[in-house]
Write the structure tokens for this entry.
Amino acid sequence: MDHGAALHLLRHSVTRHGYPVQLHKVTTQDGYILTLARIPGKGEPVLIVHGLLSSSVDWTVQGPEKSFAFIAADAGYDVWMGNVRGNTFSKEHIKLTRKDHEFWRFSFHEIGMYDLPAMVDYIRINSSSDTIHYVGHSQGGAVFLVMASMRPQYNRKFASVHLMSPAAYIHHASSPVFHLTSRMDELEMFAKMTQTYEIAGRGTGSSVELVYVGHKMGLVPTDLVLTNVWYFTGAHDSINRSIVGDILANTPAGCSLYQLLHFGRNYLAKSFQLYDYGPVENFKRYRASVPPEYPLGNVTAPIVLYYSVGDNFVPAEDVEELAESLPNVVHKHRIELRKFNHIDFLFDANAHRLYRTVVASLRDQRVIENRQ
């Protein structure tokens, strides 16, 4: 998919629902050009960041009164939706092209170190606000913790932080997808042999594009799509079937192989740590044979955690372990629904109830913060 077509899709994902949108280009310190989608408002800025293989479209796909971005916009907030490096809408670089191996040589570490700070700085300048609110799902939570722990000066730039199923500690994960962690070396070797480092990207001929087209033509039944998704997430018939085609049109949105490897190696190590390059390279980079853990004690921004007992990607016990490692968790919102899974945070037909709780707590947490 060429960049112009991608930006048209991104713009249409908002305007089709009757909301105004601005697309903003943000360049990171290491040269990646990211696209932010903004629904302008007069209130405080809110930055919303997607998870692995996702994009900003996931925050609007359910439409008005159902999607987080629109609920926040209706409440008067200045809504900014991020698209991290490597997804459909952020595949530009000042020097590299997406055909270059070096373009894809990043994990979620670089997203936290460079993408988020670039977004935050840009939003603060263009909204005339000293602080912003942050909402992230899955990897969107992990990258916030990378930034706030490794670049702690950014903590003071957040009025509140809301992390839905943050993929930091994931060592109790039970999704079948984690069976692949035993074959990560083979996966990396195959990528090197084929010079293919993008996973589940969009464009003519891509496997995910073929599924979307097949579904659109009626050749791939909706129930077949959902059954395959449920195999990984756990069965929960919670998605409005009328939007499955809209979801498939943009999701998955692609990622780098190295993002998957980073999560997989953290899962095996039972740790939230920097990228594992192997003992020799680790010693060159870290002066140790194993990577150091992220210094979560540096994360002083006020955080609310949202998590579910039915999540087999980021289990409740892992989020509660994370909470014990963070110095300023102001509230834990535990969802006791046994079937509420990892993608229900995005696509459950009743997720708007959670979103309204989050939006209402933006002001409440500001009050909590001011009292501290």
Q: What stands out?
A: The longest strand covers residues 32-39. The chain has one domain: 3-363.
